[in-house]
Write a structure and sequence with these properties.
This protein is of the alpha+beta class. It contains 2 helices and 6 strands. Strands 3-4-6-5 form a 4-stranded mixed sheet, covered by helices on one side. Strands 1-2 form a two-stranded antiparallel ribbon. Helix 1 packs parallel to helix 2. It is globular.
């Protein structure tokens, strides 16, 4: 038996909902997102909020992906069975093509769909 200790730095921020316009469509986001992250970089992001919108739902992930990802990353978008999330997923994949970042993409189906987008060095995540 070996004991492994994890150091965690959890920082919880409460953000107010905000209506924004993305590509001419009104959608919900969180106020000041992604500016609140400063220079922080992430390797794992689950997108499960705010509430879904008919168009470009949860589009704040686009700017977060543009400015706040490590070289090795995994993004999961919940509720990928809904049209707004599908549009946002397409935008996210398009962003990576635009930035010439090779990604691996798969969908997981259960009670609802989830989209998984990861850096190519984490391709094993697409085999779960």
């Amino acid at each position: 038996f070996r004991r492994v200790l994890f150091r965690s730095s959890i920082n919880i921020k409460h953000l107010n909902l905000d209506e924004v316009t993305y590509k001419g469509e009104k959608t919900l986001s969180y106020k000041d997102m992604p500016n609140i992250f400063g220079d922080d970089k992430f390797d794992f992001i689950v997108v499960d909020a705010p509430f879904g919108s008919p168009r470009y739902s949860r589009s704040q992930i686009i700017d977060i992906a543009k400015y706040h990802l490590n070289d090795q990353f995994c993004i999961i978008i919940d509720d990928y069975n809904r049209p707004g999330e599908i549009e946002t997923g397409s935008e996210l994949i398009g962003l990576f093509k635009e930035l010439n970042i090779q990604v691996e993409v798969t969908e997981y189906l259960g009670a609802k769909k989830h989209l998984l987008v990861c850096s190519e060095n984490l391709i094993f995540l697409t085999t779960m």
